[in-house]
Design brief:
transmembrane; Annexin V, domain 1; mainly alpha; membrane
């Protein structure tokens, strides 16, 4: 191997090594809810917040008979009041049967009423859990 080839191989190896190191330095770590973990404080960052994703997690936790309260609180764990406004808007109004707590239509000839997130939460959660959320979020 001549000197020019050695130099080219060393430069290529250096570039690859630098790329690998840069990847691991820049790579963002996330927790189970998808929030970015701050490498300095260990807390989660709200820099990347997807209100639609949180709204869908809430919907999935409440759409069937029986509510997954843990999933509701996990979805809202890192959501502040201003972000909850966005979640509320993304959730919108969805078909909801208040009496059965699901989306089953008793009368197939009439549609279910469209209800906003606060109605879903108030119906699905215990009064204590709903009250705790209402202290955190003004919209409830």
């Amino acid at each position: 191997m001549d000197a020019k080839t050695k130099k080219t191989v060393l430069i290529a190896a250096g570039v690859i090594a630098a790329g690998v190191v840069l990847y691991y330095v820049v790579k963002k770590k996330t927790d189970s809810s998808g929030a970015i973990i701050d490498p300095i404080t260990g807390g989660t960052s709200t820099a990347i917040f997807d209100a639609g994703k949180v709204a869908e997690k809430l919907y999935d936790a409440m759409k069937e008979s029986g509510t997954d309260e843990q999933a509701i609180f996990a979805a809202l764990k890192n959501v502040n009041a201003s972000q909850f406004d966005q979640v509320f808007q993304k959730f919108g109004k969805r078909s909801y049967n208040k009496f059965l707590g699901n989306q089953i239509r008793v009368n197939p000839f009439s549609p279910l009423p469209l209800e906003p997130l606060n109605v879903w939460l108030k119906t699905e959660l215990s009064s204590d859990d709903y009250y705790a959320l209402s202290l955190k979020y003004n919209q409830l």
